[in-house]
Design brief:
By secondary structure, the chain is α+β, with helices and mostly antiparallel strands. The protein has two helices and six strands.
Length: about 140
């Protein structure tokens, strides 16, 4: 999905962009790169510079990843919950101790979130929005 945004700040390879919040924001896979609250009319998006020369105030076209909110939720919540439950059940049967099984299950969540963090760090550039090009808008045109 491609949208227009305004450059607010440059931070190395990351550019902070601002744009009007749309209804599509609620199901966007890039919500984790945004600072969105239900009362805000504008959102701030972290995007990759992608070699396009921009300055604060410029209007740019960005390309958002098509990862769905469902997929992100499954990675962040579903997988750790499933690992926790399976570990708890299996360890309870093997160790015959609910307390020890619970400790091992919580430790398994820590391992899963560590693996998710490593995945995120390795694939962050693929998942973040990217600046495609700088856009020159006609006078009086407002980005919404």
């Amino acid at each position: 999905m491609r949208e227009l945004a305004i450059v607010k700040e440059l931070k190395g390879d990351v550019v902070l962009l601002e744009k009007a919040r749309t209804e599509a924001c609620s199901t966007c896979g890039s919500r984790s790169s945004c600072s969105v609250s239900s009362s805000d009319k504008k959102i701030t998006i972290r995007a990759l510079h992608n070699g396009v020369e921009v300055n604060p105030g410029d209007t740019v076209e960005i390309e958002m990843n098509d990862m769905s909110a469902t997929k992100v939720s499954m990675i962040v919540y579903g997988i750790p919950l499933a690992v926790f439950l399976v570990t708890l059940i299996v360890m309870n049967m093997v160790l015959k101790s609910e307390g020890l099984a619970l400790v091992v299950a919580f430790a398994s969540i820590a391992v899963v979130y560590t693996l998710i963090a490593l995945y995120d760090r390795k694939n962050r550039e693929k998942l973040m929005p990217k600046i495609v090009r700088k856009v020159e808008l006609p006078d009086g045109f407002i980005v919404r």
